[in-house]
Amino acid sequence: xxxxxxxxxxxxxxxxxxxxxxxxxxxxxxxxxxxxxxxxxxxxxxxxxxxxxxxxxxxxxxxxxxxxxxxxxxxxxxxxxxxxxxxxxxxxxxxxxxxxxxxxxxxxxxxxxxxxxxxxxxxxxxxxxxxxxxxxxxxxxxxxxxxxxxxxxxxxxxxxxxxxxxxxxxxxxxxxxxxxxxxxxxxxxxxxxxxxxxxxxxxxxxxxxxxxxxxxxxxxxxxxxxxxxxxxxxxxxxxxxxxxxxxxxxxxxxxxxxxxxxxxxxxxxxxxxxxxxxxxxxxxxxxxxxxxxxxxxxxxxxxxxxxxxxxxxxxxxxxxxxxxxxxxxxxxxxxxxxxxxxxxxxxxxxxxxxxxxxxxxxxxx
Amino acid sequence: xxxxxxxxxxxxxxxxxxxxxxxxxxxxxxxxxxxxxxxxxxxxxxxxxxxxxxxxxxxxxxxxxxxxxxxxxxxxxxxxxxxxxxxxxxxxxxxxxxxxx
Amino acid sequence: xxxxxxxxxxxxxxxxxxxxxxxxxxxxxxxxxxxxxxxxxxxxxxxxxxxxxxxxxxxxxxxxxxxxxxxxxxxxxxxxxxxxxxxxxxxxxxxxxxxxxxxxxxxxxxxxxxxxxxxxxxxxxxxxxxxxxxxxxxxxxxxxxxxxxxxxxxxxxxxxxx
Lengths: 365, 101, 162
Prior knowledge:
Helix content of chain A: 55-70%
Distance between the termini of chain B: 60 Å
Strand order of the largest sheet of chain A: 5-6-7
Order of helices and strands of chain A: HHHEEHHHHEEHHHEEEHH
Number of helices of chain A: 12
Oligomer: heterotrimer
Helix content of chain B: over 70%
Number of helices of chain B: 3
Radius of gyration of chain A: 22 Å
Low-confidence stretches of chain A: none
Number of strands of chain B: 0
Shape of chain B: elongated
Strand content of chain A: 5-15%
Largest sheet of chain B: none
Largest interface: B-C, 70 and 85 residues
Low-confidence stretches of chain B: none
Radius of gyration of chain B: 17 Å
Structural class of chain B: mainly alpha
Mean pLDDT of chain A: 86
């Protein structure tokens, strides 16, 4: 009984964290794009004169506007599928956060709580499975709109997503080879090891190519610029979710940003140590020049969760900057990059990683 | 208490029978294909249930192969349907029954 | 997995399988097929087959049914008017299906499979991989050749004749 309550609390915590970072991402989208384009951005909506640099506009006025809009279902569409598509787009991406670890352990009384909502020993495959299910939101959204440009956007979007899933999977194979496990918490813990006594052994040092492939494939999966032809705001209006208004549109936009946070979360866990703070172990800081600072277990956990949240925010910001800097790929360039660029590169990475691991382990392996 | 093996095998039998029903009764070749996939999955359930009951991992290895073969079969079958549709403009099994023009 | 949850999920699985077979709209049939496959993955998890369950979702629900949906949308299949065969065929097929299920149920009563103790790490990736790459290595390699042939064949068949 207590176990179920603890798991529920962890799930609630990670979901709240994700939604907060997503809200921050939406705000960054407005402000960072404004700064990059040398303008101020939305800052007019205000409550009692307090506009908060545009926070009130983005985080209060926009969601309220979406929720209060009329829900228009076009004539001749399939109402069941029209209702189901945003749900199938949002729920699989939210659920993926169950396996992302946000801390090491928290010791409460006699219990040691593993700070990960679901401790699966096949965590990476679970992520691939949920990302595969998110394709249905796109394809059904395009079909259920009874609009041939939405259908075009939907088909292109789902073809893009299934192509880049393969590149993502191959990058993950390289990471799995390095750590020898599919469990994300074990990978995060393994990155606390110190190379040569002072360098934290984060994944980026072992698998830089896999990081680049995974980041590219992740941005392509969430259909953000430079890969946003399915949505292409200046060409297809909103692509596959043109015919959605009100709450359903909000769900599609939310799924876009939650995927940004998901890619950020996976990149930090696999390549940048996850919740690891350099030189922090379970009982305090152990600095390489011999100094040790003892800390209580709750302070260590708090530092680790904060470090995870800060890394999430950083990679969300990075994806937003990439969005507002690069131009859009044409569809054939996009597919060529996925199949003829990232796929061979991913395969080469797997082969080279396997060779290096076997040779480095020596004749005993 | 975990459900006894017979329950899993019974569910698999019902799903298999539904799949057979689908293949025989429906006229749309794509729905016939979906019913074939349903039959393959019923067999997968049987293999996994028996693997658990006998404690042997071989059942799950066979499921792995069945899944792969089903994927290959679905790809080729749907390509055949696409090319037949280009010629005949129909997916009704009654109208695709003869090979001559 | 408690018996109550099993019965609930089994009922839901049978209902969605019937929807696949009976519903007149092919897109709805495909969505019901996805639901059936995901429910079967839940059963696999309950049977200590975590890897196979996730492979089922990734390959079957995440790729094969998407392929089905693509073909349905490319061919623009609408709700059908003459979905089923004639009443005689439906009746005899239903009778045959019931007979098949009854036969299997009768056979079930006679087999008592021994409930062996499950070894540690059963159903995990390491155990499956060990079997796959030692005892089943030849089928594994042949499967990869099969997939290559299927890819080439599908591309050759689906290409527009130039």
